[in-house]
Amino acid sequence: MSRIPFYLKYGIPVMGSFFVAKKVDLRSLVPFKPRTAHADTDLFLDEAVLPEFSIELEELGEYQRNKYQFSLKTRDQHLKEMMSGEEYDIVVIGAGASGAGVALDAASRGLRVAVIDKNDFGSATSSKSTKLAHGGIRYLEQMFKRQGNVKQSYALLKEALAERNYFLDSNPFQNTEVKIVIPDKSFLSTVFYNFPGTLVYHLIYLINSMNHESQSSIHGPKVVSPWGIRKLFPKIEMIKKYWGTMMHEGQFVDTRQALNCLLTSTIDKYDPGFRGSNIANYVSFKDFVKDKNGKITGVRVCDDLNQTCFEMKTRCVINCTGVFADQIRIKDNPDAKMRMCASRGTHVVLKNDCLPKDTGIILNDTSDGRLIFILPYQDHMLIGTTDDMQEVAEYPRAAEADVEFIKNEVQRIFGDEFDFDSHLKSKFAGLRPLCLETPIPQEEYEEKVKTLKSKDLCRSHIIDVSDSGLISLLGGKWTSYRVMGEETVSKAITTHHLNNIINEESKVSKLKLLGCYSKLELRDNMALGPQEVATKYKNQLLFLQDIPVDISERLIENYGPGPSLRIIEKGGQTPAFGIKQDKNKEFKGANVRIHPDFPILESELYHHMDNEMAVRPDDIINRRLGLSFVDQKVRSQ
Q1: Nearest to residue 104, comparing CAs of 95, 491, 159?
Q2: Pfam families annotated for this entry (predicted)?
Q3: Dihedral sign (CA 432, 438, 439, 441)
Q4: pLDDT at residue 333 is higher than 90
Q5: How far apart are CA 362 and CA 246, in angstroms?
Q6: Cα-based distances in Å from 100 to 103, 184, 275, 313
Q7: Which helix or strand (DSSP H or E) is residue 150 part of?
């Protein structure tokens, strides 16, 4: 049988009418009429009705259905299962990037997993990053200068460079590629130092990506002329005569990435052999349960919201608590040597009237030699990061000295007329977990850690196994969280003989996170581009639900196409809180803006509480929406 032409199979408009394949429901198509633009957009009505929306869920297999339309358990349901007394294969302490990576990998192999965190998911270091999925250009520079452990720097670099593709593959609607320019006033320095360096950086990425199947790729570097610099950054006076090297990295929303990863891990039968995990925020770890041989057989935990304490049986406990990992290790063994220290990274967020939406800047000639990123982020400028040693603290704050340093460097480039203070919207700091290659006895730790410099410490992750069987995932970086999870689960399987696995190998690298699949892609195994899918759903939201483009774009970015439709459909049936509906206007329910400056609907708040386990206002403002990271005044409003 000859192949059906693409335009016949998928209903592409040809010569003013639709040719439709058999599987497309003719009733779903609007009769042809001249294309008329919607008042709020340049999208057209006949583009809104596509085969995607004529596919019934019954046409999909069980696993395909679970990828598109899934049900998420409530916090109470998760806790009920945790309290059931059944034994888990793995209990994970800590629900940040590391814990999320472990949970998703273990669930993909069919292991029974529980994850707890004493605060909200991803509320510590994992939500206070530079929002870049990057290899680390400074590691390459350190290799060339023979600074530190060259082999370790190269291993970390090649791993992280290849993992950038996974970020773009796993969450293609929210994670994007961002251009970054390294400005330099010297043409010779640009073409003989910066550009060759970024080219080597890209070649390492290409070589190490060859064995990884991926739908995404990161573009290579290029030289930008002074004319190109002026075109990109017309308002930044000091670099208008500079040359530049343009490189590319991945950019992501860290709070949503951690949350979506954890929620995906809870969906039973998300993929063949996939076993849904149990997760719970605001559940604190109290102690280990051990047998007569001193081996861990369970944990004592407490639901801090209901003041209910209980035990969970488990074959393995994995410590994913970042800078707090030593506290858990000492709970297991009071004589354990210290393995962790922390460096503070400070960021500021400014109103963006200087950067393009997709292009940032790296300053590599700062007064003290540190790199500073100036990045576009959610219609603002995210600037950071400093890297200073600090004692481990529960709630680190942005140091005024760090903010002043960033201010001085920004004004040096932007010009004295740039009013930093009036542009400042937010500032925050996070503690990066760094590993000590040589453990330090507790009694010597306080003195010795004062002599350490962050640039000299291990940036890669370490998997530590104690005599009692506690596995601790120490250090690492956001970009490598999937690899860290895979290696840690593999270690748990061999150490604790977890022979009930269904899938021997990790399947996470081939999975998208929840909400990122379309029905057409699932039914026909089509490799659709995220922009193509997003356009279809934006049209659907606009024409059938009258949702403005700015809101529909953000919905699809945050939740994916399918969940966005369901949020709007449910919101249309839910009265808005405290808002009296005008009888003379169409009933929109909870699909109303909650703030004039942000494209956010009240129906999203119900979704956060019903499906994403948000229990406190900060859970929504800080992490489900991420508003306080771009504008701290919104929190009080």
Answers
A1: 95
A2: DAO, DAO_C
A3: negative
A4: yes
A5: 10
A6: 5, 39, 15, 20
A7: helix 150-170
Strands (E), 84-148: 90-93, 113-117, 132-133
Tell whether 93 is covered by a domain. yes
Which residue type does 522 have? Answer: L
Helix axes 481-496, 150-170, angle to 10 degrees: 100
476: nearest Cα among 438, 435, 431, 509: 435
The CA dihedral of 51, 574, 629, 633, to the nearest 10 degrees, is: 140
Instruction: Report d(CA 528, CA 168) in Å as an integer.
Output: 13
What is the rounded distance in angstroms from the CA atom of residue 186 to the CA atom of residue 221?
18
Q: Is the domain of 138 the same as that of 189?
A: yes
Give the residue numbers spanning the domain of 159: 132-219+235-252
Q: Are residues 331 and 270 in the same domain?
A: yes
Give the C-alpha separation, 32 to 16, whole Å.
Answer: 8
* pLDDT grade for 390, boundaries at 50, 70 and 90: confident
pLDDT at 529: 82
DSSP string for 46-95? HHH--GGGG--GGGS-HHHHHHHS-----HHHHHHHHTT-PPBSEEEE--
Predicted structure pTM score: 0.90
CA 586, chain centre distance (Å): 37
Residues 326 and 475 in one domain: yes
* Residue 166 maps to a domain: yes
Burial profile 422-442: b = 16 or more Cβ within 10 angstroms, e = fewer: ebbbbbbbbbbbbbbeebbee
Q: Cβ(35)–Cβ(44) under 8 Å?
A: yes
Q: b/e map of 347-385 (b: 16 or more CB within 10 Å)?
A: bbbbebebbeeebbbbbbbbeeebbbbbbbbbebbbbbb
Q: Are 240 and 230 in contact (CB under 8 A)?
A: yes
Name the 3-class secondary structure at 433: strand
| CATH number for the domain harbouring residue 471 | 3.50.50.60
* Run of H or E including 428: strand 424-440
Task: Note whether 278 and 77 are within 8 A (CB).
Answer: no
Round the average pLDDT of the chain to a whole number and report it: 88
Whether the CB-CB separation of 517 and 491 falls below 8 Å is answered with no
Task: For residue range 341-389, list pLDDT tens digits in order.
Answer: 999 999 999 999 999 999 999 998 888 878 899 999 999 999 997 788 8
Over residues 120-136, the pLDDT tens digits come to 999 999 999 999 999 88
Tell me, yes or no, whether 421 lies in a domain: no
607-611 long-range contacts (CB < 8 A, ≥24 apart) are 607/559, 607/563, 607/567, 607/570, 610/74, 611/72, 611/263
- Name residue, tokens 């919201």: 305
At 565, which amino acid appears?
L
